[in-house]
Automatic annotation (TrEMBL):
Metal-binding as UniProt keyword: no
Identification of the protein by name: MarR family transcriptional regulator
HTH marR-type domain ranges (all copies): 1-135
Source organism of this protein record: Kribbella capetownensis
Keywords assigned by UniProt, alphabetized: DNA-binding, Transcription, Transcription regulation
A Pfam cross-reference name: MarR
SMART domains named among the record's database cross-references: HTH_MARR
């Protein structure tokens, strides 16, 4: 029989861990919306603004303004969509990809130090939860479709 999941406790644990994880990197500070756009483009590749709107919790004027700023900062580029002249395709520049890579590398380093402080049993539990968290992410992505 499968173990009962205390979803209330799981939610609290994720809410408590998230701010710690988000703040781990100290390289070049950005606000949450900026980082979300950079990470979404990093994982999804080239997207239309309308596709990006579906993943970000911003209204179109705010996202358009943010995209303009990121383009001016050299972190993303816009180019016409060859299949629709009215639409623009957004993708990260080399500098944008470097920001995402640097943040990831720093998170790995800092999170490794935290994980090293766990007992061997705790590390075993954490290791076995990686696939489950990945699956939850996949399920959430399917629901957005």
């Amino acid at each position: 029989m499968a173990a009962e999941v205390d979803v209330e406790r799981l939610t609290t644990a994720i809410e408590d861990f998230n701010p710690i994880f988000i703040r781990l990197p100290a390289v070049r500070r950005f606000n949450f919306s900026t980082l979300s756009v950079l990470h979404t483009l990093s994982r999804s590749g080239t997207l239309r603004l309308t596709d990006l709107l579906a993943t970000e919790q911003l209204k179109q004027p705010a996202l358009t303004s943010l995209v303009t700023k990121l383009e001016q900062d050299g972190l993303l580029q816009r180019r016409p969509d060859p299949t629709d002249g009215r639409a623009m395709l957004l993708s990260l520049t080399r500098a944008g990809r470097q920001v995402v890579r640097s943040r990831h590398t720093e998170r790995v380093t800092k999170l490794s130090r935290l994980v090293d402080r766990l007992t061997p049993e705790e590390r075993d539990v954490l290791a076995s939860s990686i696939d489950v968290l990945t699956r939850l992410t996949e399920i959430a992505a399917e629901e957005r479709l």
